[in-house]
Amino acid sequence: MTLRNFIEVHISPDHEFPAEADLILPEIVVNKHMMKDNQPIKLCYGLKEIALHFQPGNSFMVKESASKFLHLDPDGQMFGFHYDRKARRLVIGPLIGILMSGVSKTGEEVFGGMTDFCLEVAEKSRSRGGRAVFFTLEQINENTETIEGWIYSNQKWIQSVFPTPYCVHNRISSRRQEKKEETQMKINLLKQRGVFFYNDKFLDKWEIVQQLKTIKSETVFFPHTTLYTGPDSLNIMASRYQELYIKPSGGSLGKGIIRIKRYGESYSCQYQKNGETIAKKYRSITDLGRMLQSRIGLRPYVIQQGIDLIKQNGRIVDFRALVQKNKNGKWAITSIVGRRGPEESIVSNVSTGGTILGLREALESSNAPWLPVDQVVSVLKNKALKLAEVFEIGAVGNYAELGIDFAVDQSGRVWVLEINSKPSKAVHSVGSQVKGARPSVKRLIDFCFYQSGFQKHSRKKQSKSRGPRPALGGLKENGEIIGLPGNTGNSKTI
Asked: What are phi and psi for residue 243, nearest 5 degrees?
């Protein structure tokens, strides 16, 4: 049986503790779980744990030496906790980790364009009794099984030492950095410590094509995609399709994409440069092939069949489904939005000037008013979930958040364009303006808590006839604070 509540933890100097105890626990907790105070329990914070002898009391108080071992720092936070009776483990938190690419050297935005996202994660986690620590590869201590990271407390970012979190979300934003040998060594070190490390890596377009090509569906289509291997592969695809997209296999944010259109024997070529669309024409496939070969070189690219996308005011429109694991560890749709590209742009990415649209708005205001909107919406939702499930079966590593890009053509057919493991967290990518943490942050916290053993439970409605609760040792149950007797002496509040 598991107890899931909030509690205020106090730290007291060792010399003020009874000689036979290292930990004071509220009597309600002891009685609830029939704890025997002649047997030690394991107090856990992150992946650190320590065996402590306890006594029942009126509050939750930890010996100072034990708190230092756990790196349990004082800042007045209410912590969540749960108790595993069988293992005799009392877990505080949870402590969750976000692995970042780096920190800003100047200004108040410690994590640059990711700072708002980090603030939301920190505050939402704290409101649930947990703590989110943000750290970089350089802050992983190899010998002490700790990390040096950042938490947000008292309206400011504080750097300190923490135990290694059990659950770590990979938000490294650079493919090049992620592929480095030293990066993989640090990630493997976390895994060896027992960390649940998720969204393991950036995804490769060609690998995803190979993984998903076995899916049979009458409602979702996959554009014909092949690996670019030189002029011959271009010739074959150009002879079949009037429009092609040539994409870096390891690209993201719409960077490096080239659109090819065939007009008889001649071809047009478009790509983005410094926020503008560059257009060029070539008289033959040979001339086009030479240009592509010089531009692409030896980098891995894929050639993808072009789709006759729906448009809004002449601008291309596609769709991004954000699919995340929820509080029960199951895939769920967090959002599906439309994305309208800038005028004359060949991509719709918000990072390149695209605009977020509501799902139905994007469909109903397109240049294809005959679309069966309800049917298309249903297909998008159903297939986003199915794709996440199928992807996970064949994926190496752990994933709990995917951005799946879809296209809808003029006839209403739904096409899968690609799957991303690092959906943008910048402010400009947020589709709806909501108070507090965005839905994707709430779901991220839900999953991290679930994975750490802190499942979210629904609040039970209290009977109107029930009187006020008695004061019981500083617990907070079902969102209601239960009175804490005043603490005296030199103890510190955490």
From this structure: -130, 135
pLDDT tier for residue 459 given thresholds of 50, 70 and 90: very low
Would 153 be classed as within a structural domain?
A: yes
Which residue range is the domain that position 272 belongs to?
A: 224-305
Report whether the peptide linkage leading into residue 94 is cis, meaning its omega lies within 30 degrees of zero: yes
Which one-letter DSSP state was computed for residue 8? E
Residue pLDDT, tens place only, 117-161: 999 999 999 999 999 999 999 999 999 999 999 999 989 999 999
| 28 belongs to a structural domain | yes
Closest CA to 354 of 429, 424, 259: 429
Q: Residue 49 belongs to a domain with what CATH number? A: 2.40.40.20
Please tell me which residue, 483 or 86, carries the higher pLDDT value. Answer: 86
CA distances for 473 relative to 113, 351, 483, angstroms: 42, 51, 7
Tokens at residue 174, please? 């650079």
pLDDT band with cut points at 50, 70 and 90 for residue 95: very high
- What was the pLDDT predicted at 240? 95
pLDDT of res. 28: 87
Residues 319 and 350 in one domain: yes
Domain boundary among 66, 92, 118: 92
Q: How far is 115 from 225, CA to CA, in rounded Å?
A: 37
The answer to whether residue 62 sits within a structural domain is yes
Of all residues in the chain, the percent with pLDDT exceeding 90 is 63
Q: Are 452 and 441 in contact (CB under 8 A)?
A: no
Instruction: Give pLDDT, residue 6.
Output: 84
Please report which confidence band the pLDDT of residue 2 belongs to, taking 50, 70 and 90 as the band edges. Answer: very low
Sheet holding 196-198, edge to edge: 156-163, 146-153, 131-136, 95-100, 167-171, 196-198
Contacts for 33 with CB less than 8 Å, ≥ 6 apart? 1, 3, 83, 85
Decide if 354 contacts 347 (C-beta within 8 A).
yes
| Last-in-domain residue among 280, 305, 330 | 305
Give the separation between CA 6 and CA 123, rounded to whole angstroms: 16
Check whether residue 316 and residue 415 sit in a common domain.
Answer: yes
Q: Which of 197-211, 322-336, 338-352 has the lowest mean pLDDT?
A: 338-352
304, 353 Cβ separation under 8 angstroms: no
Task: Name the pTM for this structure.
Answer: 0.87
How many CB atoms neighbour CB 494 within 10 A? 19
- Short-list 488, 474, 486, CA closest to 16: 488
Closest CA to 347 of 285, 296, 261, 272: 272
Residue 32, exposed/middle/buried by CB under 10 A (0-12, 13-18, 19+)?
Answer: middle
Q: Distance between CA 63 and CA 55 in Å, rounded?
A: 12
| Same domain (yes/no): 374, 413 | yes
Q: Tell me if 415 is assigned to some domain.
A: yes
Quick check: 200 pLDDT over 50? yes
Separation of alpha carbons 385 and 322, rounded Å = 10
